[in-house]
Amino acid sequence: MYCFVISHSVGGSCVSGPQGLPGVPGNNGLPGNNGLNGRDGAKGDRGEQGPPGEKGETGSPGTATRPRVKQCFWNNLDDPADSGKIVDCQFNKTSSTTALRLTWNGVLRYTGSSGGCARWFFTINGEECGNPAPVDGVVYTPGVNIHRVSTIDGLCYNLPAGLLTVAFNVGKCDSYGVGDANTGFNSYSRVILEELDMVD
């Protein structure tokens, strides 16, 4: 609206003018600063327990997880042999990386007209143990006829898996002649074989 004055009149009057053109749009304002982080919300309620999972597959059994032991025994062997095999016992070894423990328990005797000795020893498939050493024992007497309970015990390494024939044998000692040996007089004799894990 604008006003103008008419001459020689006491008062003036105002008349509305035409509408002006729209103004030019203003520029965008500057971005505002980020607001402060809001507080953590309250802890929610515990959800319901989910359904049980599917049953897992059955695991494969481990090797040599429990001792494998076999005992062979004989009553009153009373074997007078001075050399050769006395008894044997077969064992099925499951692994080539395990050790085999060889144990004899029974009566041994050696006698003669003068001092001498006899040697008892184990063989595996016809060969004495080579790793770490033979498993053997000797009896030496100066001609006295005494029967004694004896134990011969040791470990043998690097034996193959599979069926093994373990024999208990008698023979002469080094540097001594053959005398009168006796094995297993009037009692039970036993060979115990046990497969064991190796330990570094």
UniProtKB/TrEMBL annotation:
A Pfam family this chain is assigned to: CTHRC1_C
Stretches the record annotates as Disordered: 25-66
Residue ranges annotated for the CTHRC1 C-terminal domain, each copy included: 66-192
Superkingdom per UniProt: Eukaryota
Compositional bias per record (Low complexity), positions renumbered to this chain: 25-37
Protein name (record): CTHRC1 C-terminal domain-containing protein
Organism listed in the record: Branchiostoma floridae (Florida lancelet)
